[in-house]
Design brief:
- The complex is a heterotrimer of chains A (620), B (389) and C (341).
- In chain A, 18% of the residues lie in helices and 37% in strands.
- With 620 residues, chain A is an alpha+beta fold.
- Chain A folds into 3 domains: 54-245, Beta Barrel (Thrombin, subunit H), CATH 2.40.10.120; 253-335, Roll (Pdz3 Domain), CATH 2.30.42; 385-606, outer membrane lipoprotein receptor (LolB), chain A, CATH 2.50.20.
- In chain A, 50% of the residues are buried.
- Chain B has 2 domains: 40-82 and 90-274, Thrombin, subunit H (Beta Barrel), CATH 2.40.10; 281-357, Roll (Pdz3 Domain), CATH 2.30.42.
- The model of chain B is unreliable at 69-88, 365-377 and 385-389 (pLDDT under 50).
- Chain B is built from 5 helices and 20 strands.
- Chain B is globular, with a radius of gyration of 26 Å.
- Chain C has 341 residues and is of the alpha+beta class.
- Chain C folds into 2 domains: 30-233, Thrombin, subunit H (Beta Barrel), CATH 2.40.10.120; 246-330, PDZ domain (Pdz3 Domain), CATH 2.30.42.
- Chain C is built from 5 helices and 23 strands.
- Chain C is elongated.
- The chains are: A alpha+beta (620), B alpha+beta (389), C alpha+beta (341).
- At the A-B interface, helix 1, helix 2, helix 3, strand 8 and strand 11 of A face helix 1, helix 2, strand 8, helix 5 and strand 20 of B.
Chain lengths: 620, 389, 341
């Protein structure tokens, strides 16, 4: 048996084993007992893996039961992922079959026509089996992958069809029509999928969800699989999940500029002068260097990559202008959907892709069926669903932080913080905070804007501040609420309540955003007086499971991008509660640190008498 | 004393470190073991195939009838989309090669697929593993499963293979198809997994191993060499003998379990032809979920004989509620010609019951063969389109 | 002594931790990963003539350091504008060096050095059941420098294939490696088919259908057959010494048509068939192991017999099947012709 050219190959670990095994095989091919037991174990492990996720695969049907697709439940409350094109014929309500043989009511939540994804929900069980999200960036060609779904509606008993194959390609591109149904940076695999598999899961052998299956290459043999299937990557879907769960019709992002390959470089060929990127300095013939941290080496690679980003997503872009590389931050502009009036023009020559040009279209209407309520792209389809999702997010945050439960009415969190500015320790303060929003901050060591010995607080009714030398004075509500510490504590307090929606005049889940390099829900709150706040809560925890942590809080008064915002980082347990041990005051999309407050000690204490009241105030 | 204590503590620390290192090594070796188990699978495939081969026969047939065998497409509900769309791909006519069968009795009963006799060949022979060729007779067939039974005379002590029962059948396990359809003395094999354990109204298991004329009639085996089923071209859209062949290479294939099929084999061996049962109604395609509305009652059918009329709503069959056409198809697919049926239906607001016997479907002319056409080679969405009419 | 041992233990543990520390969601790398990377460095994309239903793109496999590329034969290479995209993305022109009809393959050459190439084994590195990875560019999914696609399957069978392409026969001659990965797609022919450790086993063949099953064949042309073709060492099979027409002495019963079984209607007295004891109403099932399904098969196989060489006829008489040896003679003016009117 010929081995590959020496020097080009360094077998290590498993590969040396492969070579040995195969060499042994060439000599005497009967399988030993030990080898057979390994084969059986690997088979048994795969059977167990299938059993683990079997219950989360959904067979999706319109109410008429004509045709169907697939989906996968990703959270215990029944929220599932599927394709936009599966939900189009289903509409607002349909049916979902699970492996228990039963059909459940299925309702539509959010749509992403650009990326061909939808989120829907099953009803009728207190707890649904669900699948954990994986990391599609770790998928490589040759990895085993399992597809599950309902091809040709074969599942009379709702039990999904399971197929096995390998990943055939990554970062593939399958174009859509009019910016709808674009599969950018998608996964290609030879695991068999057929009509009916749309919207179903693609798992790695560890049963992590790495993609949603949606397309296949079909040709002369009609619409049956011939070894090429495509799935939208789970990492793309994660960026859109907050918008989808907010019951929005999602839009994708664009730079409003097009690029082409020239002499091995990626050069700007067209740029809309009104575009943000033009205002930040991009001109024709500038070379695109990197996008969101990814070095760009071809125009096609860039087009594929940017198609996976939501509108308004903050990204960092580096480009070379007259020999110097500039790095800018901006939010992507929404890419409008086109409604083609005529069939597509003549096919493009090999090696080119349709340009992502700024084509405008008549406002409003997506090519949806009348079964789906017409919603303008970028807007919220159903405010009631949106608010229910807010409740859910806040409940998960309360569960994670456990502060209200830990503190009750008689305790508070006491923290000693060091204040750091520009990498040097600049001051210190002591903070006492109750679950209902009452707080007191005492400046121990002075830092810019705050004298040692000064203090500020909120007693539940009024705000006060006390200078180092002088009496405390009450601060007007309106003025107080513009201070970011106040905003923060009010927000935190509000979210700890059982019914935060009742405390605020307006609560809206605006959609998704990226903060602290994590995918987050962005919530807008307005109190009875009309003061507006925004807060960001994480979508996923560090291990990839759903976990809601409060990440950032901001006042919404004027330009949101320039106002300072407080981050909440480095959560650590304090008793039964989880408390952020680092808070930074940041500015801009780049989240540049203005000031950092680090907790050096943090504990739960009984609230002393008059802890939050105005100091030295006469007893009432 | 102190030093001893210190050493003991260090010893414990050592143990913890070793335990941790071993645990991590175990994790890594678990991943490696999984890789090994997959890489070694071909050896297990070969061993399993070796075990079944003595029971697998080559079917060589001679001559063919001048016209294709008349097909009997069964009328009745057809839920779901057509694979291949309107201009479906598929095999235009059977190939010229030999086909495959499986020994099911020591005295020469062979189980195989009706697909293998589409050309209406008058002379059937079977070649055993020892190379000897014997004349065989086709005794009976089950058209609902596309199976048939041959008998070879003058043989004894033929090796009957082990079969795997339902408790040994799990989604995700290896499945290997074996067939002689390409010709020669060595079979072609294809490996895949079990995709579903119960399909086609409980008649078949589903696999993503490549099933095609190369192995129709041959066995689908597990990693131990036990028979999971006989490979056949089944399809929910069509009862024609060749219906389902469009799925060759697609990763959707069906095998009819042999375990528990003794009764069926006996019936076929006694010369019986089991045909799908014909009721004689055309259902309305849309249903509100309360039952199946009858769009048309075919003349001279069991339904007509029982007094069913257009507009009636079928509510239950043999005690099973029938909410829509999918449920109706599921019930009907389990029944064969000659089976009796108790039907509950609503006629003009009144609920009535009828008992009838299913007949054999009437013969209809063979539909013309459509040639495969070319299409633009771009990918398409994999949602299934709603069935037409 | 002890402290040293402690250090070693800690070092081991630390390396074990380091070796296994990876994000919780990262699975182990596929055991095929190296073979795939190796193969993709040695695979190219080919663009040529696309005429009517023939697609103008295919894959190719680099087999020498000086730019020799193997691919499948087809209309695609009938052009002066044959272009190859190298693994690094450069596009260069290619020329056809030679073609092989029995292998339905073509050897191309590019004028650049290709230091990463496949060794060609002189013996088959695969047996039935082995994992194989087929590098391909089905449907031209890979553009520019993007890596080619990989489809995985096992070796189904190594066998002679009798093939056709839609309407006409394809003159592929000899063994092919049939696999169960799907390679019968436009853009796949010419791609490398490698084993799990990266050894080249074959080249994805031109799209053909099997006459035996009337299905598309997923197969590779075995590399040990392509090696002499690449090295220019093909054996030229001449037309051979002209031989006379064979004389067997059987006339078939053909009133039922050409597709009826080959029943013997008449045996010429003194003929090889008569000498061997064949009788009227015997049914000829095979000649030299090749199935005689009908009268048409019989005529074809009988015409290919060589006078002077013995031939084994498989005969069915009533329910008995036996093999009979015939001594084939050469047809002379006095012999009765075998073809029925």
């Amino acid at each position: 048996m010929k081995r590959p050219k020496a020097g080009a190959w360094v077998p290590a670990g498993g590969c040396a084993l492969v070579a040995t095994l195969l060499a042994a095989g060439a000599i005497a091919d009967s399988i030993t007992d030990d080898e057979l037991s390994r084969v059986r174990e690997a088979e048994a492990a795969r059977i167990r893996a299938v059993e683990k996720v079997y219950g989360s695969v959904v067979a999706i049907y319109p109410k008429s039961r004509r045709g169907g697709g697939s989906g996968v439940v990703i959270d215990e409350e029944g929220f599932l992922l599927t394709n936009n094109h599966v939900m189009q014929p289903v509409g607002e309500e349909g049916l979902g079959g699970l492996s228990d043989g039963k059909l459940y009511k299925l309702t539509l939540v959010g749509l992403d026509p650009g990326g061909d994804i939808a989120v829907s929900r099953l009803h009728g069980k207190p707890k649904f089996d669900c699948s954990a999200l994986g990391d599609s960036d770790t998928v490589s060609v040759g990895d085993w992958c399992l597809a599950m779904g309902n091809p040709f509606v074969l599942a009379e008993d709702q039990k999904p069809t399971v197929t096995l194959g390998v990943v055939s390609g990554i970062n593939r591109y399958q174009g859509g029509r009019g910016n709808i149904g674009v599969y950018g940076n998608c996964l290609q695999f030879d695991t068999s999928i057929n009509p009916g598999n749309s919207g179903g899961p693609l798992y790695n052998l560890e049963t992590r969800l790495v993609g949603i299956n949606g397309r296949g290459s079909f040709e002369e043999r009609g619409r049956v699989n011939v070894g090429l299937g495509y799935a939208i990557s789970i990492n793309q879907i994660k960026r859109f999940l907050p918008d989808l769960r907010a019951a929005k019709v999602c839009m994708h992002g664009t730079l409003d500029a097009t690029f082409g390959d020239r002499d091995g470089k990626v050069i700007c060929e067209q740029v809309n002068l009104d575009a943000q990127i033009a205002k930040l300095g991009l001109e024709l013939s500038d070379r695109l260097v990197s996008f969101d941290g990814h070095p760009i080496h071809s125009a096609n690679q860039f087009a594929s990559l940017i198609s996976t980003y939501p509108a308004k997503w903050p990204v960092q872009i580096a480009f070379e202008h007259e020999g110097r590389v500039r790095s800018v931050w901006m939010r992507l502009r929404p890419l409008p959907y086109e409604v083609p009036q005529r069939p597509q023009p003549t096919p493009r020559p090999a090696g080119t892709r349709p340009a992502t040009g700024p084509v405008r279209l008549p406002p409003g209407v997506l090519p949806t069926t009348s079964a789906v309520r017409q919603t303008k792209p970028g807007e919220i389809r159903d405010m009631k669903l949106n608010q229910e999702e807010c409740e859910r997010i806040f409940a998960r945050w309360r569960g994670f932080s456990a502060q209200a439960k830990a503190l009750g009415a008689s305790k508070a969190i006491q923290t000693n913080e060091e204040i750091w500015i520009n990498g040097a320790k600049a001051g210190a303060q002591r903070v006492l905070a109750a679950a209902d929003g009452r707080f007191r901050i005492e400046i121990v060591q002075a830092y810019p804007g705050f004298d040692a010995g000064s203090a500020l607080g909120f007693d539940g009714a009024a705000f006060w501040e006390k200078p180092a030398d002088g009496p405390a004075r009450q601060v007007r509500d309106a003025e107080a609420r513009r201070r970011s510490e106040v905003a923060q504590s009010l927000c935190l307090a509000a979210l700890q309540q059982d019914h935060p929606l009742k405390a605020f005049k307006e609560v809206v889940l605006e959609g998704g955003d990226r903060v602290l390099n994590q995918i987050a829900f962005r919530v807008r709150l307005a109190d009875q007086a009309g003061n507006r706040l925004a807060c960001w809560l994480s979508l996923l925890g560090p291990d990839g499971t759903f976990q809601t942590r409060l990440l950032k809080i901001a006042m919404l008064d004027g330009s949101t991008e320039r106002d300072p915002m407080w981050t909440c980082e480095d959560y650590r347990p304090v008793g039964p509660a989880m408390v952020a041990h680092t808070r930074r005051l940041v500015k801009g999309l780049a989240e540049e640190t203005q000031l950092e407050a680090r907790a050096v000690s943090c504990q739960i204490v009984d609230i002393p008498a008059n802890a939050f009241g105005v100091p030295d105030a006469p007893a009432r | 004393m102190q030093r001893q204590q210190r050493l003991r503590r260090v010893g414990t620390a050592h143990q913890c470190v070793i335990a941790a290192a071993l645990a991590l090594c175990a994790l890594r070796s678990a991943a490696l073991a999984q890789d090994e188990g997959m890489l070694l699978a071909p050896k297990a495939f070969r061993a399993a195939v070796e075990r079944i081969l003595p029971s697998v026969v080559i079917i060589e047939t001679y001559g063919s009838s001048a016209t294709p065998v008349a097909e009997r497409p069964a009328p009745g509900p057809r839920p779901g989309p057509r694979p291949g769309g309107r201009r479906g791909g598929g095999i235009s006519k059977p190939g010229e090669g030999p086909t495959t069968g499986l020994i099911v009795s020591a005295d020469g009963l062979i189980l195989t697929s009706t697909y293998n006799f589409l050309r209406g060949q008058p002379i059937i022979t079977v070649v055993l593993r020892d190379g000897s060729q014997h004349v065989a007779k086709l005794l009976g067939r089950d058209e609902t499963r596309k199976l048939c039974v041959l008998k070879v005379e003058g043989v004894k002590d033929l090796p009957v293979p082990k079969t795997a029962g339902p408790q040994e059948l799990k989604v995700g396990q290896w499945a290997i198809s074996v067939g002689y359809g390409y010709g020669g003395h060595e079979p072609a094999i294809s490996s895949g997994i079990i995709s579903a354990t119960r399909r086609m109204s409980g008649r078949a298991v589903q696999t993503d191993a490549n099933l095609s004329p190369a192995n129709y009639g041959g066995p689908l085996i597990d990693i131990e060499g036990r028979v999971l089923g006989i490979c056949v071209p089944l399809s929910p859209q069509s009862r024609e003998t060749a219906g389902g062949t469009e799925w060759y290479d697609s990763g959707i294939g069906f095998a009819v379990p042999v375990h528990g099929a003794e009764g069926l084999i006996k019936r076929m061996a006694s010369g019986e032809t089991i045909r799908p049962g014909w009721l004689g109604i055309r259902p309305a395609t849309e249903s509100k979920g309360e039952g199946v509305t009858i769009e048309e009652v075919q003349p001279n059918s069991p339904a007509a004989g029982a007094g069913l009329k257009k507009g009636d709503i079928i509510v239950a069959i043999n005690g099973q509620a029938v909410a829509d056409t999918a449920a109706l198809a599921d019930v009907m697919n389990k029944l064969a010609a000659g089976d009796s049926l108790t039907l509950v239906y609503k006629q003009g607001g009144e609920e009535k019951t009828a008992t009838l016997t299913l007949a054999e479907p009437p013969a209809t002319p063979v539909p013309p063969v459509r040639p495969a056409t070319t299409r633009a080679a771009t990918s398409r969405p994999v949602a299934s389109r709603p069935a037409r009419g | 002594m002890r402290p040293l041992v402690s250090v070693l233990f800690f070092a081991c543990a630390a390396s074990a931790v380091a070796a296994t520390t990876r994000p919780a969601t990262a699975p182990a790398r596929s055991p095929f990963a190296r073979a795939i990377a190796y193969a993709q460095e040695r695979s190219v994309k080919i663009h040529g003539a696309g005429i009517a239903l023939e697609h103008g793109y295919a894959a190719g496999t680099i087999v020498s350091a000086d730019g020799l590329i193997l691919t499948a034969d087809g209309l695609i290479i009938n052009t002066s504008n044959l272009r190859v995209t190298l693994p690094d993305g450069r596009i260069v022109g290619a020329k056809v060096v030679r073609r092989s009809e029995p292998l339905q393959s073509a050897l191309l050459k590019v004028d650049v050095s290709t230091p990463s190439f496949f060794e060609m084994p002189d013996k088959s590195p695969v047996t039935k059941g082995d994992w194989v990875l087929a590098i391909n560019n089905s449907f031209k999914v890979a553009d520019g420098a993007e890596p080619l696609s990989v489809n995985m399957g096992i070796v189904s069978l190594v066998a002679d294939v009798d093939a056709k392409r839609k309407v006409q026969d394809v003159p592929y001659d000899g063994d092919a490696i049939l696999i169960d990965a799907i390679t019968s797609n436009p853009g796949a022919p010419g791609g490398a088919v490698v084993t799990a450790d990266g050894t080249l086993a074959g080249i994805v063949g031109r799209i053909m259908e099997s006459k035996a099953t009337n299905t598309r064949l997923n197969y590779a042309v075995p590399i040990e057959r392509l090696r002499p073709f690449v090295l220019g060492q093909e054996m030229i099979v001449g037309p051979g010494t002209p031989k006379g027409k064979p004389f067997v002495g059987i006339r078939l019963f053909t009133l039922g048509g050409r597709k009826t079984p080959a029943y013997i209607d008449r045996i010429a007295p003194g003929s090889p068939a008569a000498d061997a004891g064949l009788l009227k109403d015997d049914l000829v099932l095979a000649i030299n192991g090749k199935a005689v399904r009908d009268c048409e098969d019989y005529q074809e196989l009988e015409a290919a017999l060589a006078p002077g060489a013995p031939a084994t006829f498989t005969i069915k008489r009533k329910s008995q099947i036996t093999q009979v040896k015939l001594s084939i003679r050469e047809e002379t003016a006095h012999a009765t012709p075998t073809t029925a009117p």
